[in-house]
Amino acid sequence: MIFRGNLLKMTSVYNTPVDYYLTLENEQIHVNKLLGQNIKISFAGLINCIKCGRKTNKSFSQGFCYPCFTTAPEAEPAVVSPELDMAHLGISRDMEWAKTHSLIDHFVYLAVSSGLKVGVTRHTQIPTRWIDQGASYAIKLAKTPYRNLAGQIEVELKKHFADKTNWRNMLANIYDSQINLLEEKNRASALLSTDLRKYITEDNEISHISYPVLEYPTKVNSLNLDKNPVFEGKLMGIKGQYLIFANGIVMNIRSHGGYFVNFEA
Asked: Which helix (DSSP H) or strand (DSSP E) does residue 259 occupy?
């Protein structure tokens, strides 16, 4: 079958393993069912902004045209750096958007994908955020009433914990399974000031996540549709927001946000 449309991040359902869905022109593709099959992806050079839909020659911040990149609340710097969020002071590109994205409960968490890392997400995005990062297991660390406060906690902990994922190791399924998240949570709590420590959550459940992968690559090579607009390969797995093909070729769906493609399976 041939599906056509603009790429958007895959949606996921927390099952064992995770179920992934890709939507193209209102057709929902259950990507798990394509494992072991040959997939052909063709890009003709058309990119549409994921916010307003206008044609753009270049994608900014994973799918925005430049005007939306500079004005849309979804592209505010605080999306990447929560400590920069000023919605609690009444400052935002869109305060109505902020009411449902910034001025709500947030979690600071610890997760293991390639290694131990600290991160922040809205309460509505658990476990989706962990899945998008390709985490193998994760634990909630602190719960805050708005985004900036979670960002403050993350900033303090980034002095002692990584906040980035080694995506190559994550896709090769290289991680330390011996990391004790409860011990790391206790260590993180002790590193915080008294004012911030009061937000530590008593929820110590550790979530384990498995992914639909037939075979993990030993060496990873990233596919870029700007450089290679037509690609065909056997789908071997899905992890994070990546499609994993035979011979270690991987495609980050989210970094191609807005790209109009033919998807043949």
From this structure: strand 259-264
Q: What would the 3-class secondary structure string for 124-172 be?
A: HHCCHHHHHCCCCEEEEEEEECCHHHHHHHHHHHCCCCECCCCHHHHHC
- Mind listing the pLDDT tens digit for each residue in 89-130? 999 999 999 999 999 999 999 999 999 999 999 999 999 999
For range 65-88, the mean pLDDT: 97
Identify whether 136 is part of a domain. yes
Asked if the structure places residue 71 within a domain, the reply is no
CB proximity list for 75: less than 8 A, separation 6 or greater: 51, 60, 61, 64, 68, 69
Q: Residue written as tokens 């191609």?
A: 256
Domain match, 118 and 14 both: no
DSSP structural state of residue 55: B
Query: Same domain for 109 and 141?
Result: yes
Q: Tokens representing 185?
A: 């949570």
Closest CA to 161 of 120, 127, 106, 202: 120
pLDDT at residue number 90? 98
Say how far apart CA 250 and CA 12 lie, in whole Å. 18
Q: List beta partners, residue 60.
A: 64
Domain extent, residue 35, equals: 2-53+213-264
Q: Cα(166)–Cα(73) distance, rounded to whole angstroms? A: 28
| Mean pLDDT, range 142-164, rounded to an integer | 97
β-pair partners for 139: 110, 206
Q: Is the pLDDT of residue 212 over 90?
A: yes
Listed residue (253, 173, 209, 206) closest to 14, CA to CA? 209
Would you state the pLDDT for residue 143?
98
pLDDT in tens, 7-47: 999 999 999 999 999 999 889 999 999 999 999 999 989 99
